[in-house]
């Protein structure tokens, strides 16, 4: 049976998303097909405006509606702590917990030689001027507890050691090999409380 081109195109587009295989893409396509047109129009508009309505913060590289982001401009935040994370989603998860009140630095990934991602492809070197300013007294390395995350944390620690600040790593409340975005708030809170000198 020949499938309609519109259905095939959407299924192929959905398949490009992480974690979506051919069968899931087809299920999602047929699910969307049975939604009212106004809901599809709203969904399409939200997707179309995703990049247009967001900006990357020039200081921390988090994604927000404004540049600089609300976290960087919040005078109530602890200006002497910088938490280094891999992705903006990690910031969202940590903020949801409500236990951390410092600043962030979003790397945009982790060092992964197998995927041709080195320090130059990330916002690693953008962190150094923030540390050089002397405002930060603690650098919290909150990269994922994976091989890539550990390598990235070690690279940052080697760069940051010359700035005479406390360098800590999240405690092992997070299981090895897990991503921060999947951690619940209590586990994440314990990981922050159990952070240690790096």
Automatic annotation (TrEMBL):
The keyword Cytoplasm does not apply. GO terms for biological process: DNA recombination; DNA repair. InterPro entries: DNA_Rcmb_RecR, Hlx-hairpin-Hlx_DNA-bd_motif, Rcmb_RecR, Rcmb_RecR_Znf, TOPRIM_dom, TOPRIM_RecR. A zinc finger (C4-type) spans 57-72. GO terms for molecular function: DNA binding; zinc ion binding. It comes from the Bacteria. Keywords: DNA damage, DNA recombination, DNA repair, Metal-binding, Zinc, Zinc-finger. Residues 80-175 form the Toprim domain. May play a role in DNA repair. It seems to be involved in an RecBC-independent recombinational process of DNA repair. It may act with RecF and RecO. Belongs to the RecR family. This is Recombination protein RecR. It comes from Candidatus Beckwithbacteria bacterium CG1_02_47_37.
């Amino acid at each position: 049976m020949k499938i309609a081109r519109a259905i095939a195109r959407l299924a192929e587009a959905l398949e490009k998303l992480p974690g979506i295989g051919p069968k899931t893409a087809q299920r999602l396509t047929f699910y969307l097909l049975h939604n009212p047109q106004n809901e599809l129009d709203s969904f399409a508009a939200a997707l179309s405006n995703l990049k247009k309505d967001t900006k990357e913060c020039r200081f921390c590289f988090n994604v927000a509606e404004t540049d600089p982001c609300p976290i960087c401009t919040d005078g109530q935040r602890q200006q002497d702590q910088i938490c280094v994370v891999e992705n903006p989603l990690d910031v969202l998860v940590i903020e949801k917990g409500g236990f951390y009140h410092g600043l962030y630095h979003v790397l945009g990934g982790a060092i992964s030689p197998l995927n041709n991602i080195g320090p130059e492809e990330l916002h690693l070197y953008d962190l150094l001027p923030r540390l050089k300013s002397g405002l930060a007294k603690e650098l919290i390395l909150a990269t994922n507890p994976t091989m890539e995350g550990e390598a990235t944390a070690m690279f940052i620690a080697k760069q940051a050691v010359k700035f005479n600040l406390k360098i800590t790593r999240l405690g092992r409340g997070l299981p090895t090999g897990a991503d921060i975005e999947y951690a619940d708030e209590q586990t994440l809170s314990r990981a922050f409380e159990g952070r240690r000198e790096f």
